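Two entries, shown back to back:
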Amino acid sequence: HITPEKFYVEACDDGADDVLAIDRVSTEVTLTVKKDVPPSAVTRPIFGILGTIRLVAGTYLIVITRKKKVGEIFSHAIWKATDFDILSYKKTMLHLTDIQLQDNKVFLSMLNHVLSVDGFYFSTTYDLTHTLQRLANTSPEFQEMSLLER
């Protein structure tokens, strides 16, 4: 969900009530609940957050807008991110000079080129950041940690 003040990322899992709120001015990230999302927010589906990047115009949020299932590992779906959107935290570009606007446009073009290259894979239930050998040699405590905590 997008408002002029915040981005709200809502999990679509059954029973999930938490919403990630990203302040577009302070860039502060907090957890809130669904009822805090204003009804006036523009809603669009995404499949994940790739990250943030700071360019000339300010900070941008990079989100995955399309995905394709490419396989499974131990019954865990593996997805390929196939399309992205780059969302500006800033509401306007009036604070930039013509040279800064041009530089920002070039950097956005470069970023779009990098994102168009194959190779962005993810899983919401399996740890793709560690090899199977390493995972086999980790402690039970590590195995029980969420993917985010790892």
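entry 2 starts here
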Amino acid sequence: VTHSIPACIGSMTINGKQLDNESPVSVFAVNKCYKTVQDGTFFDGSGFAALVREGYKVRSDVNITLEFRTTAAHGVLLGVSSAKVDAIGLEIVHGKVLFHVNNGAGRITATYEPRGTNSLCDGKWHKLQANKSKHRISLIIDGNLVHTDNPYIQSTSADTNNPIYVGGYPADVKQNCLTSKSSFHGCLRNFVLTKGQHTELFDFSRAFDLRGVFPHSCPGAEH
């Protein structure tokens, strides 16, 4: 076995002596355990997960689905960019969800704003679907659809070649379709990207870079 165990371990003794878990000599990718746990990945608000080291190519079409839970009004959900202006981005800003797309001619944004006292930052699970089909983009939150007009109808392909950054991104990485630098604080699950007939469910434990992200378990309530 060459990989770590996604589990909680406690009350370990060696030769009758209990190990001190509170002040270890060194720690790597170990988080506290929770009394109540849900499936998903916990983002502690300090970092990000980086997927597809060789770069993800959005091009003309992509459908993004995920579920999120947070009590924060700001946070990056996803960013895929390029060295040029082509990019896509999903973020929570002032409690609204924004889906940005730039196919090279200019950024367009679909914005979902909760009505009345309904909040997306209530610590409950919310379903998100963001779709880009050539120059058209749409956003569905908890079954509520938002369309946006795109004046750049001739520009249809987002020629991205950078990794997928989820929950934030490194300070030295440029993101052309994100306005926020705030890392996401909360839980994500069921993160799926679909292109045509190809559907990919991403496992955050397989990310090539994880900072402040803990796969496989979310605290049952915000900690």
